[in-house]
């Protein structure tokens, strides 16, 4: 059974076939030069379980905040927010738009420019290992849930907290309260626009005055397609570059 083997590799509960589960698969040594991480997602259907493995490839250039493609104004604003000691920064956008990559780049910037700051992350699952950061794996089907872990971590005297995703009203309330009490919170939220993220918080029961006092910025990002540098050609009629396809792309 392929899915059963994947669940073993991902450290999931093999005897539970009726709940969705997520985990990480340890990358084998012969592939570590190319594949950085493998994320496993298993979901039950009426025909059996459905499994998806997402491969994260090594992109050393994306570790730097300035190399993500943001404009100078946005990049400068993110660095200003990273230097603060309180507030909530929310990243929004569709799945696969690079929100986790941006959060990881911000954390690396904080560690590089402000050494000694206590940085802790809560993730489900842990997507990227970052040296110098205390990373915590959430178990939504056990006792280590986002609200439980977040309440306990606030007593660990953290200075910077990264929450993988705000999924429910209880987590949102604790995040907002932490941002008001001297912690810098970074997190993601499913929303199609910055204004939609604020409305989502209000729908979760957060008071408007708490939103305005704690949320310092909302970033909504998308991925843009780039033409292959090795095979793109200049179209003389339109004066635009076009792609023709090659082995590299």
Automatic annotation (TrEMBL):
GO terms for molecular function: ATP binding; ATP hydrolysis activity. Keywords: ATP-binding, Nucleotide-binding. GO terms for cellular component: plasma membrane. Coiled coil: none annotated. InterPro entries: AAA+_ATPase, P-loop_NTPase, T2SS/T4SS_dom. Residues 85-208 form the AAA+ ATPase domain. CDD domains: PulE-GspE-like (cd01129). SMART domains: AAA. PANTHER family: COMG OPERON PROTEIN 1 (PTHR30258:SF2), TYPE II SECRETION SYSTEM PROTEIN GSPE-RELATED (PTHR30258). This is AAA+ ATPase domain-containing protein. It comes from marine sediment metagenome.
């Amino acid at each position: 059974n392929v899915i059963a083997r994947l669940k073993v590799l991902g450290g999931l509960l093999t005897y539970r076939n009726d709940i969705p589960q997520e985990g990480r698969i340890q990358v084998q040594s012969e592939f570590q030069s190319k594949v950085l991480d493998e994320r496993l997602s298993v979901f039950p259907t009426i025909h059996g379980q459905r499994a998806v493995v997402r491969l994260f490839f090594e992109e050393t250039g994306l570790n730097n905040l300035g190399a993500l493609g943001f404009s100078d104004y946005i990049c400068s604003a993110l660095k200003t927010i990273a230097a603060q000691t309180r507030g909530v920064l929310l990243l929004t956008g569709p799945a696969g738009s690079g929100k986790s990559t941006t959060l990881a780049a911000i954390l690396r910037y904080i560690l590089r420019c402000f050494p000694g700051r206590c940085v802790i992350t809560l993730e489900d699952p842990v997507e990227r290992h970052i040296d110098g950061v205390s990373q915590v794996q959430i178990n939504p089907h056990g006792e280590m849930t986002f609200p439980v872990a977040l309440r306990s971590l606030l007593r660990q005297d953290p200075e910077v907290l990264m929450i993988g995703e705000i999924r429910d009203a209880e987590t949102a309330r604790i995040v907002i309260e932490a941002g008001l009490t001297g912690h810098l919170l970074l997190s993601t939220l499913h929303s199609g626009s910055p204004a939609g993220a604020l409305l989502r918080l209000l729908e979760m029961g957060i008071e408007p005055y708490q939103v305005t006092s704690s949320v310092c910025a909302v970033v909504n990002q998308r991925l843009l397609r780039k033409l292959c540098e090795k095979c793109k050609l200049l179209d003389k009629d339109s004066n635009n570059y076009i792609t023709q396809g090659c082995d590299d792309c």
